[in-house]
Amino acid sequence: MIQNQYSIFESELTVRPDDIDMFNHVHNSKYLDYVLAARYEQMEKFYGMSWEKFEEMGFGWVVSKVTIAFKRPLKMGDQMLIRTGILEMNEKGSNVQFEIINKKTGKVASDGVFEYVMIDLKTQRSCKVTQEMIEAYSI
User: How far apart are the first and last CA of the chain?
Assistant: First the structure.
């Protein structure tokens, strides 16, 4: 992962039976779910601004673009570490880098970048990220 002024956080998940595809490894769509689950946990735990707090303020984060590289398969029961860190945070949105690491082997199974934009929940249109939000996430 690219080291910059922002912190990198880590969450742990285990591959479940419903994550497995016909080739007996994790289906590629599940990697996105893993990152989203990790970010959900990390928003409250590390930034102190949970998904629900954004919702109470009338805002939400939506994914506008994902770049992902699949490097090694994950299989049933594998434990993984999901590391994420902000690459960029500004009034237009946030870019979050990630890597999913097989805990047993220590090797990267997948990595990439999520691009998020802030939306106004009433209008469902993009809006500016407030300075308060930028400061909360600039750790």
Answer: 16
